[in-house]
Design a protein that fits this description.
alpha+beta; three-stranded antiparallel beta sheet; elongated; 9 strands
Length: 430
């Protein structure tokens, strides 16, 4: 049945409403041509899938964290019911919204984001010359994340959370302050997932993204995302990949250089390096007693090449003769084999990154763009899971990313490119 506007205003009067004009522009840029609108198999046609996608984009941009809030918002703005395309201008039962998120293949929504990004590339908004990768925690809907719950479990990582079977335990934040009594570092843990994204560091727009359980390492997910980026967008060689210390993993550097043909700009993780080490003019380690250690062979340790250095009093009789009373600083290790130290001699992608240059500092500073992107997503309520099923959470999160991409595209169309990241005010400037 053809849609009819259930309002006392004429259609021309409705079209000039600011909220109608805003979402009309957004939906004009949403390419749903490859999405089946109804069920053409056995049974009823069901609810329009196109209308549900548009409705969830409204939920994202209006920061409505529940389906009930979305329905109330549509009821308060009947012009949007018409604009979404619901049959007979009737909002379907809330179960249809939940069914859509839980049953829809995630690849369909990913394709909508891909098509929007391709248009942004054609408009020269996305360049794919410089990217930044990061992740954001998403708390699951469970009583174990409630700080007021005295019985919440934040220790047993093997526990299966009721109604959130794929939620895993991980740290939410870390404060680098050690308790002087217990000597324990302060970690805050939570049950949930993480939203990972590769962001264009020049425009601040998300290129590829994914939501995964909390217990998968960042660098493993980053490899999946960069493979997807390469497969979908085919970037040119020399693309820059920026990451924080969570991605300071030797295999990730090799992957970025050899498979993606990109340049890694990643800061060192303190846990992977030893600080405040002294070396002699020859490049050998200076021990605690102030003596130059003696090389004691080169060996392979997995995919690394390491130089072993040993206490000079144990490795050289001539040096030992100069110190008849043993180690000058009284190191307890001297009684046995003596102190040893190791230097990494591996010539690989990680060791070739020139971190002490102004260029590295300038490029790494671009990583703040991904922090800004996650800040906007936090305003879209992405930090708190709005559903129980991981499939529903993934679909809802990707729609959030899609909504921001559509805002950027509309901002370009209305000749306001400076508003591509202003999802609240982009249309007010039109």
């Amino acid at each position: 049945m053809q849609n009819q506007l259930p309002l006392f205003l004429s259609y021309d009067q409705v079209r000039v409403l600011p909220i109608f004009r805003k979402y009309e522009k957004i939906f004009d840029e949403l390419d749903l041509s490859h999405v089946s609108e109804f069920n053409f198999g056995i049974g009823a046609n069901g609810t329009s899938q196109h209308a549900l996608v548009r409705a969830f984009i409204i939920r994202s941009l209006e920061s409505l964290n529940t389906v009930s809030a979305l329905i109330r918002f549509l009821q308060a703005n009947p012009a949007l019911i018409y604009l979404c395309g619901f049959q007979n201008q009737r909002i379907p039962h809330d179960s249809q919204f939940y069914r859509f998120l839980k049953k829809t293949n995630h690849s369909m929504i990913e394709d909508l984001l891909y098509r929007t990004n391709k248009t942004l590339i054609e408009e020269k908004v996305l360049s794919l010359k410089m990217t930044a990768v990061d992740s954001k925690p998403i708390k699951a809907l469970t009583k174990h994340n409630n700080p007021k719950n005295p019985h919440r479990d934040l220790k047993n990582k093997n526990k299966k959370i009721k109604r959130n079977p794929k939620a895993t335990l991980g740290y939410y934040s870390y404060v680098p302050i050690t308790d002087p009594e217990t000597k324990k570092k302060h970690f805050t843990f939570f049950w949930g997932y993480r939203s990972h994204a590769v962001v264009d560091a020049l425009s601040g727009l998300v290129i590829v993204e994914g939501t995964f359980p909390n217990n998968i390492s960042d660098e493993n997910i980053a490899q999946k995302l960069y493979r997807k980026l390469k497969r979908l967008y085919k970037p040119r060689k020399g693309m820059i990949a920026i990451g924080d210390k969570a991605y300071d993993v030797r295999d990730f550097y090799t992957f970025i250089v050899n498979q993606i043909k990109a340049e890694p700009i990643i800061c060192l993780n303190p846990r992977n390096t030893q600080r405040d080490l002294k070396h002699s003019e020859k490049g050998h380690r200076i021990c605690q007693a102030g003596l130059e250690m003696i090389p004691n062979g080169v060996f392979k340790d997995g995919n690394r090449l390491r130089l072993k250095e040993r206490c000079p009093l144990k490795a050289s009789k001539q040096t030992a003769a100069l110190y008849p009373h043993g180690c000058p600083c009284g190191n307890p290790k001297f009684a046995g084999y003596g102190c040893t130290a190791y230097q990494d001699l591996t010539d690989d992608a990680r060791s070739r990154v020139q971190r002490d240059t102004p260029r590295f500092s300038k490029l790494y500073a671009k990583r703040f763009v991904v922090e800004q992107t996650f800040s906007r997503l936090q305003e879209l309520q992405i930090e708190e899971a709005r559903h129980y099923s991981l499939t529903a959470i993934r679909n809802a999160n990707t729609i959030d990313y899609l909504a921001l991409a559509l805002v950027a595209l509309v901002a370009v169309r209305i000749k306001k490119p400076e508003k591509i990241r202003c999802f609240r005010t982009f249309f007010n400037a039109a």
